[in-house]
Design a protein that fits this description.
9 strands; two-stranded antiparallel ribbon; Rossmann fold; about 55% helix; 2 domains; alpha/beta; binds zinc ion
Length: about 290
């Protein structure tokens, strides 16, 4: 056996010995191995070598340093702590980069008033099983009147998925179209992001100006996501059946892609905005003494 190999092994042993925690209470057991004075487990052990091995003669009675139980636990705890810090930092970065409107940050299951329990349950189930949804490339499309809470539900899922340390982009078409109109570099950046985030959420599809340019851009966005095979969530006040029966080819090719990727959820009910306005009106009438 080459001496250089032994030198490397000897140096490694020496380094491990130097790095090891030692305490005054450490002692040697009957076999001559160093024991930890705190947890009373070995800090050294003999290695088994085949008698024909070149290592046998040199290392047969040589104690190799190992981690005692308490030292190993301490290292594991520190690793866990470091991992938690890194995950927390990653989640914060995903939230900062992925949630483009501060209002979306408030859309969490913790803030759900549960007025539509079946939909809340469905959304929670989707978010809780996101790994599976991601693997299958399954998305959702929330259809319904303005103000029924579609964006809230989509936001709840987006925030829950970010909390699982997964990248999300929650945005709207006008914002994406504007960015796609910047430099080629910016355009590539945006298309790349559309493609790589674990979950893309597009809020309020169907309220854009329907110029041939914007339709072309919307197709580019949807098609990029489609080709990534990853989940897409959309909120829209378009009617699902209208999307299905659309005949105009410029819209049809967009809708066809979306309907292939997204499972429909109809969000029915009174507009929450009306309800809020009504409550404000009641308060003001009362407050101003007009009621
Ligand atoms: Zn110990």
């Amino acid at each position: 056996m080459n001496n250089a190999v032994f030198n490397v092994i000897d140096n490694t042993i020496m380094q491990a010995r130097n790095n090891a925690d030692s305490c005054e209470e450490d002692y040697r057991n009957a076999d001559g191995l160093l024991m930890c004075g705190k947890c009373h487990t070995p800090k050294e052990r003999f290695l088994e070598f085949n008698k024909t091995s070149a290592f046998y003669e040199r290392y047969k009675n040589h104690p190799f340093p190992v981690l005692c139980k308490c030292r190993k636990e301490k290292i594991d705890t520190e690793k866990e702590k470091q991992k938690r810090i890194e995950t927390e930092m990653l989640i914060n970065r995903f939230r900062k980069e992925g949630i483009t409107d501060d209002n979306y940050l408030k859309y969490t299951f913790a803030h759900d008033d549960n007025k539509n329990p079946a939909i809340s349950r469905a959304c929670k189930k989707y978010a809780d099983n996101f790994s599976d949804m991601y693997r299958r490339g399954l998305g959702l499309i929330f259809c319904g009147q303005v103000g029924t809470g579609k964006t809230f539900y989509a936001g709840c899922i987006a925030n829950a998925v970010i909390s699982q340390a997964r990248s999300v982009l929650m945005t709207n078409i006008p914002s994406l179209i504007t960015k796609l109109g910047y430099s080629q570099e910016e355009k590539n950046y945006v298309l790349n992001k559309i493609s790589y985030v674990s979950l893309l959420v597009i809020d309020d599809l169907g309220v854009e100006r329907d110029t041939p340019y914007s339709l072309e851009k919307i197709y580019e966005i949807i098609d990029t996501r489609y080709r990534s095979g990853k989940p897409l969530i959309i909120t829209t006040n378009l009617k699902y059946k209208d999307m299905k029966t659309e005949e105009n080819i410029s819209y049809k090719r967009i809708y066809d892609r979306i309907l292939q990727m997204c499972h429909p959820i109809a969000v029915l009910g009174e507009s929450r905005r009306n309800e809020k306005a009504l409550k404000s009106a009641e308060f003001m009438n009362d407050f101003l003494g007009l009621s």
